Amino acid sequence: MPASYVVYIDESGDEGFLFDKGSSTWFVLSAVITHKVNDLETVKLVDAVRILLGRKDHEPLHFRRLKHEHLLPFLHQIAQSDLKTVTVFIHKPSIHKIELFQQRNRLYFYASRLLLERISWYCRDRRPDAPDGDGSAEIIFSNRGGMKYDEFRNYLNVLKTQTTVFGVEIDWDVINADQITAYSAKQMGLQIADAVASGFFFGVQASQYGFAEDRYARMLKPVVYHRRGRYNGYGLKFWPRDCEIIINKESHLAWLQEIYGL
After folding, report:
1. Which CATH number covers residue 125?
2. Can you list the positions of beta strands (E) in 14-97?
3. By the 8 A CB rule, do 14 and 26 touch?
């Protein structure tokens, strides 16, 4: 049987640890989830925004290339949709064993694991509502230069065989390594995932003057996955645990408590 869900994944920030040379303090990875039978709606959403902004047909909507006044209607359309989002936030300065995550793709793989856990919970819990399919999800990553997705599939297969050892919480009835692909960021669903990841990134990454732009993250609340009103640990996952100190301390992150109850 075909999959029941399609999931688009993109990132914002970088994986570097040279903070004094411009590396971001946060790395953000976001997923946008839709029922497969409704996947065409992602195309319609992007097309509607493109028309609204007066853009050319097939012109990609890249978040960082849009002006603030153009981002607001884009995010408004996302917030009014039937999509659901999950976002993982990695506060790199709070990682204790940095040397482990300086290895190629190690941080990205781990962030993806945390993301896929929550994606699988969302899809599992809504399986009775899935219009058709086998309850699994097709996972579509935004293609990263230099990354071999066969390596990521192998990583997932290792996690599956060592689920108890590594404390993995992925529902393997939902996530299948063979259903993971990567496409150009021009793909419609990935443009939405880019907007979500970047919107949350700008809410946590402070500028050199100590300010962040949290309006985008506030706008996205209607589509953020939650369980019984709880967002922390579900639609929003922060890692490592020590970064909670930063969240409670930094004034530019106050919106996380105010809007999402962290």
Report:
1. 3.30.420
2. 26-35, 84-91
3. no
